[in-house]
Design a protein that fits this description.
By secondary structure, this protein is mainly α. Helices cover 72% and strands 7% of the residues. Strands 2-1-3 form a 3-stranded parallel β-sheet, covered by helices on one side. Helix 4 crosses helix 5. The longest helix is centred in the middle third of the chain and has 41 residues. The radius of gyration is 23 Å and the shape is elongated.
């Protein structure tokens, strides 16, 4: 029974990391720490909040000047769509920056993968600091 379990564990690890000579080293990154400390994320959030506040002011002014309830509803829809676009662009910028940093660190450290630290109970090379530095 122990031999069967050991064989299954070996087979599972081969499937996970590949049977060939691929690199089985992996990194881990603390995404919460990256979110708090990365310059790109901080500035993108600040810019997004600033844009949304400006848009809110414009929306409030336009709503006060609206001549009918129908016009007000139309304006609200337009401003909501613009706000969603601003948020989406910010998320894409942050994701792109993170993806680029992860890719660069993985290549530099010769890692097969970088996983979220919260999802890995043990092991892996912590590359959080390097990722934060790359996101400047």
């Amino acid at each position: 029974m122990k031999k069967i379990i050991a064989g299954l564990m070996i087979a599972a690890s081969m499937l996970t990391f590949g049977c060939s000579g691929r690199n089985a080293e992996f990194g881990v990154v603390d995404l919460q720490k990256v979110e708090k400390e990365a310059v790109t994320i901080k500035t993108t959030r600040e810019d997004t909040v600033k844009k949304l506040k400006e848009m809110q002011g414009e929306a409030e002014k336009a709503l006060r000047e609206a001549k009918s309830e129908e016009e007000a509803k139309k304006l609200m829809g337009e401003f909501e769509a613009k706000a969603n676009l601003v948020k989406s662009e910010a998320q894409n910028k942050m994701k792109s920056s993170l993806d680029t940093a992860l890719s660069q660190v993985a290549k530099e450290k010769n890692l097969g993968a970088i996983l979220a630290k919260q999802a890995v109970p043990q092991g892996g090379t912590d590359v959080t600091k390097e990722v934060i530095e790359k996101m400047k």
